[in-house]
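Homework help board

Subject: predicted structure for assignment chain

Our instructor gave us this sequence and asked us to write out the predicted structure in token form, then describe one feature. I got the tokens but I'm not sure how to describe them. Can anyone check?
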Amino acid sequence: MNILGINAYHANASAALVCDGQLVAAAEEERFNRVKYAAGFPAAAIRYCLEAGGLALADLDHIAVPRNPWARTGTKLLYALRMRRFARERAKVWASFADIPEALAQAFDTHPKRIRARFHRVEHHRAHLASAFFVSPFDRAALLSMDGMGDFASTMWATGEDRRMPINGSIAFPHSLGIFYTALTQYLGFWNFGDEYKVMGLAAHGEPAYLEEFNRILVGHEANFRLGLEYFNHHRHGADMSWDDAGETPVIGRLFSDYLEARLGPARRPEAPIEQKHKDIAASLQSRLEEIFFQNLRAQHARTGAKALCLAGGVAFNCVANGKLFGEVPFERVFVQPAAGDAGLALGAAFYVGHEVLGQPRGFQMQHASWGPGYSSCEIRAAIEEKHLFEGGFDISELPEEQLMKDTARHIAEGDVVGWFSGRAEWGPRALGNRSILADARRPEMKNILNLRTKHRESFRPFAPSVLAESAAEFFEKNHPSPFMTFAYPLRQEKRNAIPAATHVDGTCRLQTVERNANPRYWRLIREFAKLTGIPVVVNTSFNDNEPIVCTPGEAIDCFLRTHMDVLVMENCMVRKPRSADAKRSVEIASRQASEVSR
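My token output:
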């Protein structure tokens, strides 16, 4: 039984292929078209998934789409009458979903009637819940999905029981924790799609001095909450999201109202300095979100009595809140899959059809995120030749596995910044040891080096540590697994000075626990670093520079050349930048040549 899940005409367009109950491949369209958070139709991601499964379009039995135009019809009609322009935009999106068979046929140069697969429409939040529960290790769990909006709901909770997910409740538009957070993110001067994580990082630099006002902006009791709508615009004009047909990065219209500015003061301009007031507003925003989040979770625990919890939706990426929930709610185990946001809808829709619709038994657990494309040594060698690295004075060598691990660990220990390209690309927005930039967490200066010279981003942004799973309890106050970098924990007091480059200003880290059986190659590298230094931790940030995470060897080389990285490791090939002035000039020439090839 072959099931393809497609998240299309929405941010984070993606595809996932499930064959006989097992996940075969999953990828976001942005990894192929190089447009961050790409919307539109994920033709390249679908093509990759089918190739990974050795399938043709005609081999698919079912196609699942995470959008149901018939969900909450009454609410949609009410707002369609009140907001004509918004209704027209929604109608265009619904029409696009209706045309998915045609788009799929066009992408594969065939006729829609030749697609024999049965199409299924899965409600947005049901797909989110399925994306977490059906790939989790739990037979029974409380389930919660929270995001901006999908099918006119922002929140849904359920009880996961084997292959079923009875829905226990939901919260409809216009009330939304996702819109709450995004609106204040815009107010703080961060207008790009996906900037919420910047505000989460900024919050640690402030105090919740505006909490009294935020208690009016967001009001909650037990599982339910509502927005103070006078602070927002989306219920008047719609939560506008736009992109072009080429799948560009989505743009969200202004969500906060003039009344919010009257209460909190003028919004920060993107180019303006970040003042203490802005940090305190970010802290108040984060604090209020956590309060409502924990209230809902306590209600879910009381209702279900479950010991396990599965989270999905964009709010599930709030690793700060996730890390605190163990002290706030009685759940013992928590699972967040690596693409918990809208990319994960493709995964959830496919598994929902497999289990809820078709009644297939469960038999898959997601233990790693390596579901994207991988590349052979021959393809890597060809990319090195294409980028003219052999002519640029670079030290290029093929090393046996054991020697490669020792040499790479030594480079990190000596202060080099290493690009690490290994295995299949990660599923989700986090680099987890397959497409990563690695550095020495012991060096205080490494945070600024990476932010300013490699990643070219705001100086307040923190970096994450990858730690051997068996050593996590030695460094962190909490020891619940965090394999997909979705939890932030406080460092133990005695370790505060051990890994300063990976420690946030509040003493916490958004960590990745690395299991030997989940990513053996990355685990061996960190172990080699521990043998050299006594510290089983490295800084791990995504292999990119204001772009989607690199996918191909050529993209990895381009990023390596134009940023401050010293060493590039692609499978068993190590490339080192030359040290002399003349050789550095060769690097500049090679970088320009690589850019020309990319264009």
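Reply (TA_rk): Your tokens look well-formed. For the description, you could write something like this. The domain at 377-598 is CATH 3.90.870.20 (DHBP synthase). That's the kind of observation they're looking for.
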